[in-house]
Amino acid sequence: MPAARVSLEAVLRTAEAPRTGALWKLDGAARQLDANLVRLPSGAGVTEHVEPDLDVLLVVVEGSGSLHHAGDEEELAPGALVFVPRGERRSVTAGADGLAYLTAHRRRPGLTIGGTQAREGGEPACLLGRICPACGRVSEDPSASYCGRCGGRLPAA
Question: Which residues partner with 65 through β-bridges?
Fold first, then answer.
């Protein structure tokens, strides 16, 4: 996949003024990372939720607001960079002039039938070193040392 380069300022300026939500997202089938540029109007927010599987990095691009996480409220301003670990309850609220921020996190694994992967007899023996003992995910990268889903050490590492 070729390197992706985008001007966040240009995306914000060219998006129609009333348009909110995800204005841009990272594309490409073979990537390991997801990223989104989100714009919220004044007073709007992302309701409280828990992301059980993914750590998220949030970078404020313009505007102001607050991030509620880990029982605290953190003020957001341009240039703020906040790491929000998986499993932590969080919400975002835009300030009086709205809020635009970039999120980045590991890409979610593809969906499987029944929400689980087959654990018996499906993969050839040559892949055994690429199966995570903690969650059962097969790494697509033969040189990976850690699982892309749960972070556990792979047996071949």
Answer: 76, 94
- Is the full-model pTM beyond 0.90? no
Instruction: Go through 56-73 and write b for each residue having 16 or more CB atoms within 10 A of its CB, e for each that does not.
Output: bebbbbbbbbbbbbeeee
Retrieve residue 17's tokens: 């003024």
Both structure tokens of 11: 């995306």
Residues 143, 14: Cα–Cα separation, whole Å: 41
- pLDDT tens sequence across 20-69: 677 888 777 678 888 888 999 999 999 898 888 889 999 999 999 999 99
Distance CA 98, CA 75 (A): 13
The H or E element that residue 17 is part of is none
| CA atoms of 67 and 87, how far apart (whole Å) | 15
Q: Are 100 and 62 in contact (CB under 8 A)?
A: yes
